[in-house]
Amino acid sequence: MSIEYALVSEGEEDEPIELPTEEDGSLLLSTVTAQFAGASGLKYRVGGRLRGLRLVEERVSPPPGGWAAHRYFCAFPRASAPPSRPRCSDLIVLGLPWKTGEDAVREYFSSFGELLMVQVKRDAKTGLSKGFGFIKFAEYEAQVRALGRRHMIDGRWCDVRIPNSKDGGAAAHRKVFVGRCTESLTAEDLREYFGAFGQVTDVFVPRPFRAFSFVTFLDPEVAQSLCGQDHIIKGVSVNISTASPKRDRGSRSQLLGWGLMEGSAARVYSWPPEAWPAHPQHAPPAPSAPAAPVSPARDAKPYLKYH
Prior knowledge:
By secondary structure, the chain is an alpha+beta fold.
């Protein structure tokens, strides 16, 4: 019984090799890969166009005219680009004790992973610590671990966050507004509940109580997926919406919500109607006796009209 051979090369310009076919006329893919490592199939050129051969159960089927009608070259899978690894960013450490220096900060955070940078901010005149500093990890996993909890450093609780200046516009996308909160809901209750959806990096409950809170996630996609939903937390129905900061654009600001001071700049938030407190109903004032007429020329005063 004669064996039919197929002329196969790695590329169109390479010298071909004769590969034996099987009794049913097919060509085993293992026969191809034995000569051309990594090959996933065969193709040939017809009228200036490339045409691939059918591969079924690791067997390459011949073209309509048989193996002798064409010369074949290997097809290789395209190398898929590896997923980009998240990059580490500078982290700010808030609430450092005045006595804590770089050595103590490095020693503490080294337990999370390798550190590339440690800096404690100090006053230029006195040299005393300003109570905060910056760190940067070599591995993103270490950064995630550090962001996911509070830290006791030299007897004081400290927080690690991504600075807004480094995080750019992504900071707003990672934060959600939690409306209709009650005083019974604590920051730990919110952290525990929303931690089931993703890594929570910060929970802000204003004091005095204002019937709302802010929850910040590490992943902005988790935060955005919760917006527009109602959640029941310990029997309290809360509403989740996007936290939209608006910067003051002039010397005089227009207050669209309660203003929250963060550093030296004010942030104003637009919140859903249900988050606003009800206005107290006041009884109308009792009528008073008519005032004595006054002389317009002598007692008239200028006034300002507000729109």
